[in-house]
Amino acid sequence: MSRENVDLVRRFFDHLNATGEFLWDAIDPEVEWVIDPMALLAGTYRGHEGVKMFLARIEEGFDQVRFEIDDLIDAGDSVVALGRTRMHGRGSGVAVEQPIGWVLRVRESRIVRSQVYFRPSEALQAVGLADR
Predict the structure, then answer these.
(1) Cβ–Cβ contacts within 10 Å for residue 54, how many?
(2) Can you give the residue ranges of every domain in the chain?
(3) What is the pLDDT of residues 93-116, one digit of tens each?
(4) pLDDT tens, 16-51?
(5) Nearest to 51 by CA among 127, 112, 122, 124
(6) Residues near 87 by Cβ (< 8 Å), separated by ≥ 6?
(7) Could you give the CA distance from residue 81 to residue 70 in angstroms, rounded to a whole number?
(8) Burial classification of residue 103, based on how many CB atoms lie within 10 Å of its CB (0-12 exposed, 13-18 middle, 19 or more buried)
(9) Architecture of domain 2-126
(10) Burial label, 31 (beta-carbon count in 10 A; 0-12, 13-18, 19+)
């Protein structure tokens, strides 16, 4: 099942970057979406409605958001995505680049939990791959 999980996460990011929209069919309706405590929009967002609220908050501040994924790592029931987020401030015009590690837990072909880390090494550590 792990290969399928990696493929699902790859489709999720490809769709997000191509359309600017989440691939909602790949996200469990009861998903838990956790954003790094260091982030401006830190917190835990629950369910599709919670995640949509989080996305609306991002759109308030940024007119462009792109996730550049360098590596997808099979971690059993989770997939670790390593890369960076690039954003462009809506009002300020300031470009922001943030390294990112993302742990996405998958169950029955749906993302059931997502946790974003601003330190990619913490994402690896969270799934027991700190030595990688």
Answers:
(1) 16
(2) 2-126
(3) 899 899 999 999 999 999 999 999
(4) 889 888 899 999 999 999 998 887 788 999 999 999
(5) 112
(6) 58, 62, 64, 65, 66, 95, 96, 97, 98
(7) 8
(8) buried
(9) Roll (3.10)
(10) buried
Written as six digits, the tokens of 99 are: 């390294």
- As a whole number of angstroms, the distance between CA 20 and CA 40 comes to 20
Strands 95-107 and 62-75: unpaired
> What tens digit of pLDDT does each residue of 55-99 get?
888 888 888 888 999 999 999 999 999 999 898 888 898 998 999
Assigned token pair, 54: 């989080």
Residue 51: in which H helix or E strand, if any?
Answer: helix 47-61
Q: Rounding to the nearest 10 degrees, give the CA dihedral for residues 118, 24, 31, 35.
A: 20
What amino acid is encoded at 119 in this protein? R
110, 27 contact by CB (below 8 A): yes
